[in-house]
Each structure stands twice: as C-alpha cells, then as structure tokens.
Design a protein that fits this description.
Helix content: 25-40%
Shape: rod-shaped
Largest sheet: 2 strands, antiparallel
Number of domains: 2
Strand order of the largest sheet: 1-2
Structural class: alpha+beta
Low-confidence stretches: none
Order of helices and strands: EEHEEHH
Distance between the termini: 101 Å
Number of strands: 4
Length: about 130
C-alpha cells in the first residue's frame, strides 16, 4: 500500500509504504528532533520543575521552590507551605514522645511571631447555679 504524505519538517509531499512515517528523509527527522530538544531545554529553563517533598509533619506533598543540588543549604530551612513546619524544627523534636505537639507549638509560635499578633486562650468554664 502506497500512501502520499506531507513531510512534517519541510512540507513536501512524498510517497511512503508506512502510514506512521512523518518525514521524507532521515535528515529531516534528525533536524526536527534537534529542534524539539532545543524547545524542550528552553521550556525547562524558563519554567523549571523542581523536586517534590512530602512534609514529615502534615504529610502533604509540595514542590520545593529551588534546586536541591545547587542550593543544599536551603533544604534544611525549607518550610512546608501548608503547615509552616521547617526541617530544623522537625529534626530537633524527632525523638521526644510528644514530638507532634512540640512541633505544632513551635510552628504556632513562629506564625504568631511573624504576624505580630498576640495569642489569647479562651477557657470555657461550666458553672453550676449556686441555688442548686
């Protein structure tokens, strides 16, 4: 079966035996491949995709906004965008029996310290009627 197709690189019509062939010759296939690789590298440079990390505190996955290989010092100070827990705080409290509560309190203190507000705790006390 002979099929007339149009080359995806130069646009010239050619006759082929296969219906999946897209190029009239091997050199046009190579040129198109090289062009696609250049576009792929340019896209990666303009919109980089970084590694994803699961927070050890809230267990949510998020993208780390920097390159770990180029900036390894930033990895220990990375804060989860969901719960604000950083790696140093988690590492400091890793062996304590109530580590989850300690990390939660440390994160809460960081949030309050950054916002400039004060924390007020409200207690609800049930009272009984003195006449009873």
């Amino acid at each position: 079966m002979r099929v007339t197709k149009k080359c995806a690189y130069c646009g010239i019509e050619f006759i082929t035996n296969k219906s999946t062939k897209r190029f009239c010759c091997r050199s046009h296939f190579k040129k198109d491949y090289d062009r696609r690789q250049v576009l792929k590298k340019r896209e990666e440079r303009l919109h980089p995709h970084y590694a994803k990390k699961t927070c050890e505190f809230c267990r949510r996955e998020s993208e780390i906004p920097f390159d770990i290989v180029k900036h390894p010092e930033k990895f220990n100070n990375w804060q989860c965008p969901y719960c604000w827990a950083d790696m140093n705080t988690i590492f400091q409290h890793r062996n304590s029996p109530n580590s989850h509560e300690q990390v939660f309190c440390a994160v809460l203190e960081m949030r309050i310290g950054n916002s400039g507000t004060t924390l007020t705790q409200v207690f609800h006390v049930t009272t009984t009627n003195p006449g009873q």
